[in-house]
Amino acid sequence: METIGAVAVLGGTGSEGGGVALRLAVAGHKVIIGSRDAAKAEARAAEINARVGGGSVSGADLKGAAAAGEIVVLTVPFTAQAGTLEQVKAELEGKILVDATVPLVPPKVSRVQLPAGGSAVAAMQEKLGPGVRVVAAFQNVSAHNLDDLDHEVDCDVLIFGDDGAACDTVVSLVGTMGLRGIYGGPVCNSAAAEALTSVLIAINRRYKLAGSGIRITGMDRPAEPRG
Ligand SMILES: NC(=O)c1ccc[n+]([C@@H]2O[C@H](COP(=O)([O-])OP(=O)(O)OC[C@H]3O[C@@H](n4cnc5c(N)ncnc54)[C@H](OP(=O)(O)O)[C@@H]3O)[C@@H](O)[C@H]2O)c1
């Protein structure tokens, strides 16, 4: 199993990335929040440090954060996914990129509208090439639940990728955050999680929920590394 070093969260100033950064900080990881505006990232880092009562979170611009992170998490809107990755492509080489992107098309975000080719994350693996170890994760985990430290996050995290060792590392990383990560197949299968987010949004709206999630049944044990 690979050791887990510093984790950069590009878009960590926003809802989902802020929640991921917060849970990573609670778990004791060194976290670098990346933003188009370094001052905005530093402010968010200070906010999380104050909440957690530590100093393990720092802020930087996108390139600086991607360079400092051994694992890089991407949490930006679909429309910003390709442009953000283009800016940090050189810094990602050889690293695990955890992509939480869901290709929502406002205003009808509760309707499944996948991009041509099927999956937003698989498209990035194709674009970045095998030198970047792309893993899809967190797409069905609501920002609201990540931010609510008074409660455990009551859902599983589906993990997809073509690099098995990278997927195992992300399963471990997610485990340190108090979540169960479950390997769900190659990166093309990310399409299922991307589609499922719109289903969860429809459920949230119909039943007035802050953040529904998914649980895999028939697996009453922690996820193990793939054999
Ligand atoms: N929110 C959820 O509950 C949730 C759940 C699962 C998955 N996701 C997925 O996670 C991703 C982030 O969602 P979010 O709700 O956290 O989004 P968000 O808060 O709207 O945006 C996250 C960050 O992305 C950057 N950003 C926003 N617009 C941009 C643009 N036009 N160009 C470049 N950067 C831009 C901003 O960072 P800077 O201004 O600091 O650069 C922003 O703080 C999305 O793909 C979403 O589908 C979200």
Can you walk me through this structure?
The protein is α/β, with parallel strands linked by helices and 227 residues long. It has a single domain, classed as 3-Layer(aba) Sandwich (Rossmann fold). It contains eight helices and eight strands. The chain has an eight-stranded mixed beta sheet, with helices on both faces. Strand 7 (156-161), helix 7 (164-176) and strand 8 form a beta-alpha-beta unit. The longest helix is centred in the C-terminal third of the chain and has 18 residues, at 190-207. The chain is globular and about 40 Å long. The structure holds NADP nicotinamide-adenine-dinucleotide phosphate. NADP nicotinamide-adenine-dinucleotide phosphate (NAP) is lined by residues 11, 13-17, 35-37, 40, 75-80, 84, 100-102, 104, 138-139, 141-143, 197. NADP nicotinamide-adenine-dinucleotide phosphate binds at residues 11, 13-17, 35-37, 40, 75-80, 84, 100-102, 104, 138-139, 141-143, 197.
Q: What count of structural domains?
A: 1
For this structure, what is the CATH class?
Answer: Alpha Beta
Number of helices: 8
What small molecules does this complex bind? Answer: NADP nicotinamide-adenine-dinucleotide phosphate
Q: What is the total tally of β strands?
A: 8
Which radius of gyration do the C-alpha atoms yield?
16 Å
- Please identify which CATH superfamily we are dealing with: NAD(P)-binding Rossmann-like Domain
Tell me about the largest β-sheet.
8 strands, mixed
N→C terminal distance: 12 Å
Strand order of the biggest β-sheet: 3-2-1-4-5-6-7-8
SS-based class:
alpha/beta
CATH architecture: 3-Layer(aba) Sandwich
Helix content: 40-55%
- CATH topology description: Rossmann fold
Q: Unreliable runs, pLDDT <50, ≥5 residues? A: none
**Mean pLDDT across every amino acid position:** 96
Strand percent estimate: 15-25%
